[in-house]
Structures are given as C-alpha cells and as structure tokens.
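hey can u check if this looks right to u? its 119 residues, i copy pasted from the old doc so theres a chance i mangled smth
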Amino acid sequence: MPRARPLVKRVYEKPEPSDGFRVLVDRLWPRGLTKAKARIDLWLKDIAPSDELRKWFHQGSGSWPEFRKRYFHELKDRGEALTILRARLEQGPVTLVYSAKNEEQNNATALAEYLSAGK
C-alpha cells in the first residue's frame, strides 16, 4: 500500500479533524500561539532546515529552487525524524504545520515534496 501524501497547513489556520496527526516542522515555536490553540501532536524540530539555511532563504538571499536543493541535502542527515514521519504517514493522514507567511514556498511544502517523492 503506497504511503499517503502529507497535507500542508499554516499553523494559524483553524485545526480540522481531517488534518489527522499534526506535526510542527519549524525549529521555532510560532509567535503568539499557545500550544492548546495550535493543537500540535508532535513538534519535530529536527526536521526543520538549519538556522543558517532558514535565515539565508528568508532574508531574500536565495532562490526557491536553491533552497529546496540545500534543504533536501540536509534531510539526508535527518534519518530518525524522517522515519517518524514516514511511520505516521502509514497510519493515516498527517499534516505538516508551518508558520511562514509564504504558503507556497516554505519548508513544509518542500518537505511534503521530498516525502512524496519517496526520498
């Protein structure tokens, strides 16, 4: 049975039952949000991009394709965190939750792509 594709959602959006298991994939806790309101099942800091890569991308220094390339390279060293996510995906819906304002170009969408490609 093929693994389900993870869903991606901004942490400030209302949690829904269809989200399934909600995993925060940011290194920093979202500003102004309580743990109860965020309804996060797991905070997987270790899957987030390095601070150096995150700052490089968010300061406008880098392009989206280059960010994805560098992040995918970093993910090769995150075996334990990837194993946790892959196991959860086999159990049912998983939503990768992030706090970035850009809803199309962020670490959660890149991570979903990485997982969906079977890497």
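The first strand starts at residue 7 and ends at 10.
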